[in-house]
Amino acid sequence: MPGNSAGVAAVERAASLLEAFTDRDFTLSLGELARRVELDKATVLRIARSLAKYGLLIRNEDASWRLGPKLMKLGNIYQSTFRASDIIEPLLADLVAQTGESAAVYVREGQERLCLFRHDSHQSIRHSARVGDTLPLDRGAPGRVILAYSERSGTIYDEIRAAGYHATFGERDPQVASVAVPVFRDGRNLFGSLALTGPPARFTEEAIKRNLEILMAAARRLSSAMGGEPGT
Amino acid sequence: MPGNSAGVAAVERAASLLEAFTDRDFTLSLGELARRVELDKATVLRIARSLAKYGLLIRNEDASWRLGPKLMKLGNIYQSTFRASDIIEPLLADLVAQTGESAAVYVREGQERLCLFRHDSHQSIRHSARVGDTLPLDRGAPGRVILAYSERSGTIYDEIRAAGYHATFGERDPQVASVAVPVFRDGRNLFGSLALTGPPARFTEEAIKRNLEILMAAARRLSSAMGGEPGT
DNA sequence: AAAAGGTGTTGTACCTAGTACAACATACTT
DNA sequence: AAGTATGTTGTACTAGGTACAACACCTTTT
Description:
The structure is a homodimer. The first copy, chain A, is 42% helix and 22% strand. By secondary structure, the first copy, chain A, is of the alpha+beta class. In chain A, the strands form two sheets. Chain A has a six-stranded antiparallel β-sheet with strand order 6-5-4-9-8-7, sandwiched between helices. A three-stranded antiparallel β-sheet of chain A has the order 1-3-2. In chain A, helix 2 crosses helix 3. The longest helix of chain A is centred in the C-terminal third of the chain and has 21 residues, at 205-225. The interface between A and B is large, with 58 and 58 residues. Chain A binds a DNA duplex through helix 3.
């Protein structure tokens, strides 16, 4: 299993065990788990026991497995890597209060974008993405904004940079429209994108115009708080 | 390393690697990492590479390591185990809006309590606990309430059950006061505790009395939403 | 009621594959 | 230029992880 440079196969097997769980299948039996990762039941059992010992997995009464609380703790520490939660969380709350739409911060993580923070509006029935979710870079306004400011190719991206924002209507998810603007840190380095999302019906040209000013003001505040040049 | 029943040592080593990271030391060099887990540098390197392959660890430009985004995703799935975020999050927001204090939900996880959800008030400068943090069961109102409804021993706990709530003033953390009430699911089974926290100065007898009604109303709503008997 | 399928679990033997050690390549200090 | 950090690769040894088969315990089937 160790791919290019040497790794530890057992560890990778354990990781794939964790990956077997999803929002829908958050509790799996040993057999099902073994089937999904294509390993022997006995092997899975022993790995799972070790994971459980460290709180990464938990066993419920009926002997089936689910992810453990330690993952929440670790995920949280990951978030604190960005040392920005103290600034971002109240800022998102403000944005929601002012615009009535849900607000989120996305950062690039490899060839995807990660929803790092999120604050839902009261009206939001259907979340587009939850904190921790990864979505494509080339679909949806928050992703396209990130691409526009990290790679130079493509006329669409030139236009986004010229405008300083981007809006999409159901591009990634037909039920979601979004407006996004870039956030910078340490000068002119892209940190990620700040976005408002909601049902396309509410995203009229007029509404976007009104909310865009609020969004951009928030982005400027956030950028300068992180040592970035706000950008025009 | 495999403790009582057979496990996989390499997996446990990998888990301890993840545990080496904290809020403060969220980025560690290979050497530092090896020192902390008391393993050879080469061993740590290989394990870390495998973890990185699955997004559980990430390497930054200067070759040091930090926790990976996959942990956020997994932590999120763990949360969804409780299938209650859709109800709880807006409920906490409401509580904060009505009381002006921070609100949180704790559940029991072994011999500790886990902060499962949290919503900070605008006034809160200092968070007492963040989502994913584990705190002692026998310190602080949310913990004591959980104990009162899951174990019967101790006169303090009898009193808490009689009152239906509990308040503490800097018991766990000198700078934090809290009021907590139980939440039930599926009849009369304890789900966890719902709490308001803030600086002791603001938690006057009068303020508690006022906020307690709001808190209990929220707990009743939450309990019945989860199929629990609200309790008087 | 016995048989057939479904769980999870343990023991064992083979041999992979993970580990520790030492050697090496860089990069800063002094 | 010697000294002390860092991360990295190669190698030899054997610890330890794996697959298989056997087992115990359930339900459901016939």
